[in-house]
Amino acid sequence: MASGGDLTLMILGFLERQPMHGYELKARLAALTGHLRQVSDGALYPAIARLEARGLVDRREEEGAGAARRQVLTLTGAGREELMRRLREPTELEISDQTKFFALLTFLSALPEADQVRVLQRRLDFLDAPASFFYDGERPVKAEEVTDRFRRGMLLIARATGTAEREWLRQTIGELTRV
Fold this sequence. Notes:
- This protein has 179 residues and is mainly alpha-helical.
- The chain has helices at 4-17, 22-33, 41-53, 77-88, 92-96, 98-107, 113-128, 149-178; strands spanning 20-21, 57-63, 69-75, 135-136, 139-140.
- It has eight helices and five strands; from the N terminus they run αβααββααααββα.
- Helix 1 crosses helix 3.
- The radius of gyration is 20 Å and the shape is elongated.
C-alpha cells in the first residue's frame, strides 16, 4: 500500500492534470502503483477528506452517468502550491527509495526545468554514492565478492538498474541544461 505521503503526492499530482471523481482517481492510482502497492478505499477516501479539510482539494457534486450523482475533485490554488513545494523539495527518502522517487518522477514535469534539474541531480548524487545491500564492516560488498547466488543476483540486478537510471539521469539533465 502507498504511504500517506506518497498518496498525498499522487492525489495532488493527478488532480493537477485534471479534475476527477474518486473512482477515476483510484483507477489512476492503481495503474501507477500496480498490484503490489494497491490503494484501498479505506486509505484513499480519508486521504481525500484530509486534503479537503486542509483546503488543498475541493469537492463538488455533479450528475452521474446513471441516477447517482458523483463527487468531482479539483485541486485548489493552495493544493497546487503544496504539490509544487513537494516536487521541488522532496525528502531524502523520496530521493533514495526507488518507488517513492518514481512517484515523484511521475509529476516532475509540472515544475520549471531548473527545478527539475535540481531534483534529478539529487537522485543522481544519491546513486553515485557507493552503496550495497550488504556490507563488510563499513565497506559496501560488490556482487563479485558474494558467494550466495541469490544475494549476488540482487546486487547484479541493482547494479544494472542503477547503471541504466544513472545514464538516463545524465542524459536528461544534459538535455534540460542545454535548452
